[in-house]
């Protein structure tokens, strides 16, 4: 798989020489996702407001996860299709919302052709290192005049956490220190240019800090790493893993642990673009 690292412009498909990249896990545990990481879709309600779905509109929820935001969109009277590359997530979404439509589909392989008035995506696109493939698929999926409304991690997202992960990998003598890069966090100018180069008119785009409280008190950061940062644990034996986690926690505690809770240093890129 080719990759893009933030800061490289304008070719989105430049292979990375240094970093190992991984696609988003396709076998996430849907129960754990909903039980301990429900902030992902709860914060997404703001993005649904930005979408402002209208009765009868056809809307694609790209990376719908367990379907909660698809359901919020559907409450407006819009007709929603939720897609996700994880069969586990789609199964959970179908169970939770049997009246809605969900399908397994990869954001890099969208096959839709002009069927949607809007494509919506929350907290997904930072997992994909080939943004142009996604943008082209979204553009093709949209009817003339359609809109793309999305939010995901932008440049600087979880920068403190990533620094701590690399420092802790070095501490446990892992050869992976500084080489793991599971995420794509573009800047405003980078992503706006990609949209414009690929047929969109960008009407709104912004980057903002959104410190995000993690559930489960002192265990919150470990839970987050288990769910989203497992690439950093690969190749470590049990003792190294424990050392890694303790080191990360010690490193970040002064900055990111407040009032008995961990706060992830999220930074969001939010946008509205039209075809
Ligand atoms: C995010 O929403 O910013 C995010 C989620 C999981 C991993 C990395 C970033």
Topology (elements, then pairings):
Blueprint: H1 30-36, H2 39-51, E1 58-62, H3 68-74, E2 79-84, H4 87-96, E3 101-104, E4 116-122, H5 131-141, E5 142-153, H6 159-171, H7 188-197, E6 201-209, E7 212-213, H8 220-228, H9 238-256, E8 257-258, E9 261-264, E10 267-274
Parallel strand pairs: 1-2, 1-4, 2-3, 4-5
Antiparallel strand pairs: 5-10, 6-10, 7-9, 8-9
Bound molecules: benzoic acid.
Residues 123, 126, 153, 157-158, 183, 228, 266 line the site of benzoic acid.
Name some characteristics of this structure.
alpha/beta, Rossmann fold, 275 residues, disordered N terminus, seven-stranded mixed sheet, 9 helices, binds benzoic acid, single chain
Major β-sheet strand ordering = 3-2-1-4-5-10-6
CATH-derived architecture of one domain: 3-Layer(aba) Sandwich
Number of helices: 9
Bound ions, cofactors and other small molecules, one mention each: benzoic acid
Please mark out the parts with pLDDT under 50 across 5 or more consecutive residues, or reply none: 1-23
Number of E strands:
10
Mean pLDDT over all positions: 89
| % residues in beta strands | 15-25%
Q: How widely separated are the two ends?
A: 28 Å
Fraction in helix: 25-40%
Write down the secondary-structure element order: HHEHEHEEHEHHEEHHEEE
Cα gyration radius (Å): 19 Å
Structure description:
The structure is a single chain. By secondary structure, this protein is α/β, with parallel strands linked by helices. It has a domain at 20-156 and 184-215 and 266-274: Vaccinia Virus protein VP39 (Rossmann fold), CATH 3.40.50. 36% of the residues lie in helices and 21% in strands. The protein contains nine helices and ten strands. The strands form two sheets. The protein has a seven-stranded mixed sheet, sandwiched between helices. The protein has a three-stranded antiparallel sheet with strand order 7-9-8. It is globular. The two termini are 28 Å apart. Mean pLDDT is 89; it is low at 1-23. The structure holds benzoic acid (BEZ). The site of benzoic acid has 8 residues, from loops.
């Amino acid at each position: 798989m080719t990759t893009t690292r933030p800061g490289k412009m304008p070719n989105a498909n430049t292979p990375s020489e240094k970093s190992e990249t991984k696609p988003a896990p396709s076998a996430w545990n849907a129960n754990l996702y909903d039980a301990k990481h429900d902030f992902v879709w709860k914060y997404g309600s703001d993005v649904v407001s930005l979408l402002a779905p209208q009765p009868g509109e056809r809307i694609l929820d790209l990376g719908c996860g367990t379907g909660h935001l698809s359901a919020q969109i559907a409450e407006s009277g819009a007709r929603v299709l939720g897609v996700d590359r994880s069969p586990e997530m789609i199964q959970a979404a179908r169970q939770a919302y049997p009246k809605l439509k969900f399908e397994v589909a990869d954001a890099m392989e969208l096959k839709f052709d002009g069927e949607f008035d809007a494509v919506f995506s929350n907290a997904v696109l930072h997992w994909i290192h080939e943004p142009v493939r996604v943008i082209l698929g979204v553009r093709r999926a949209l009817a003339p005049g359609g809109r793309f409304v999305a939010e995901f991690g932008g440049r600087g997202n979880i920068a403190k956490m990533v620094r701590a992960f690399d420092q802790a990998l070095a501490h446990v003598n892992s050869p992976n220190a500084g080489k793991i890069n599971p995420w794509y966090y573009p800047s405003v100018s980078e992503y706006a240019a990609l949209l414009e180069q690929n047929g969109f008119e960008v009407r709104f785009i912004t980057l903002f800090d959104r410190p995000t409280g993690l559930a489960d008190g002192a265990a919150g950061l470990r839970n987050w790493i288990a769910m989203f940062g497992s690439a950093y644990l690969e190749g470590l034996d049990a003792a190294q893993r424990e050392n890694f986690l303790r080191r990360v926690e010690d490193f970040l505690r002064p900055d990111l642990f407040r009032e008995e809770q961990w706060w992830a240093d999220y930074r969001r890129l939010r946008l509205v673009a039209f075809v």
